[in-house]
Amino acid sequence: MGFTDRMKTKAKSLKRRLVLPEGTEPRTLQAARIIMDEGLAGAVTLIGTDAAVLAAAGDAGVSLAGITVVDPAGSPDLTRYAAEYVELRKHKGMTQEAALKEMLEPLKWGAMMVRLNDADGMVAGAESATAAVLLASFTIIKTSPGTRYASSCFVMEVPDRTWGADGHMVFSDCATIPDPTAEQLAEIAIAAAESCRSFLDVEPAVAMLSFSTMGSAEHPDVDKVREATRIAREKRPDIAIDGELQADAALVESVGKKKAPTSSVAGRANVLVFPDLNSGNIGYKLVQRLAKAEAYGPFLQGFAKPVSDLSRGCSVADIVNTSAATLCQGVDA
């Protein structure tokens, strides 16, 4: 079963609640209808005024039957949400009056729904900049306990099923942190391992990639990967994490045995953690084009609760697939 089908099947069984803050965006409206019709969510909420969402749905030819529309300005939850926002931002001088105004913003409202368990996941970005989605998520949903940084991953699905987990692998970070420190790289590795469990339903084998394998080269960039590996292992000894490893040592059993014979990850990695955004972004695109792989994502990781950012050029299918995957985050097999 391919990644998309797996995520849809899992989402159907979970029946989680999805919020789509961009309630008047045409592709989002079409996606919301498909998500409800296919049973990918137990509930779908769109944010916007009733009149605006109804008009946009009419223009898009979308029925809103079974879909909840919430207008923050008229919602009985406004005061409760604003009070929570004051608590979150009081160190920045947030007042109740200012919070009432800011909570009218759809992205912040959607994030607060997730924070307060009125929704299980949020997907946005079809018409909002990534920075805006991340700001609402960082400010309100926050990162997971013990995690300071959010990152991203792609799920790569290659035709050759001998790689990774039946042809599926997690690549991280390919879209968020340009030049991570050792601490950030360690958190990326831990978050990617959790993404592997949620998305691939297998135990992660995390390779910390470098141009060096176990001391074959010396350079400050290699030192960073080594330190990141140490930190990640110290934080999460339950996860199989090893490095530094060159890509062939991480993926090819014969090479792994030769270059890193004592490694528990070499030759069988299903999670590749790249040392920086240059290599991560280049790497996933090379695999996507040259290996004719499918690249799903980027999915945000490291947040306390599921949230995903879309490309503003996304298709309706992209929104549907991302929503299904987002609703599966944080749930192992």
Tell me what you see in this structure.
With 333 residues, this protein is of the alpha/beta class. It folds into 2 domains: 162 residues, Rossmann fold (3-Layer(aba) Sandwich); 145 residues, Rossmann fold. The chain is built from 13 helices and 11 strands. It has a 6-stranded mixed β-sheet with strand order 8-7-9-6-5-10, sandwiched between helices. Strand 1, helix 2 and strand 2 form a beta-alpha-beta unit. Helix 8 crosses helix 9. The radius of gyration is 21 Å and the shape is globular. The model has no long low-confidence stretch (mean pLDDT 95).
Characterize the largest beta sheet: strand count, sense, and whether it forms a barrel.
Answer: 6 strands, mixed
User: What structural class should be given to the helix and strand makeup?
Assistant: alpha/beta
Number of helices: 13
Which spans of ≥5 residues are poorly predicted at pLDDT below 50? Answer: none
Beta percentage is 15-25%
Shape, per Cα inertia axes: globular
Task: Characterize the quaternary organization of these chains.
Answer: single chain
Spatial strand order of the main sheet: 8-7-9-6-5-10
The CATH architecture of the largest domain would be 3-Layer(aba) Sandwich
User: Would you tell me the overall average pLDDT?
Assistant: 95
Total of domains: 2
CATH third-level topology of the largest domain: Rossmann fold
Count all strands and give the number. Answer: 11
Query: Mind telling me the C-alpha Rg?
Result: 21 Å
Cα-to-Cα separation, first versus last residue: 15 Å
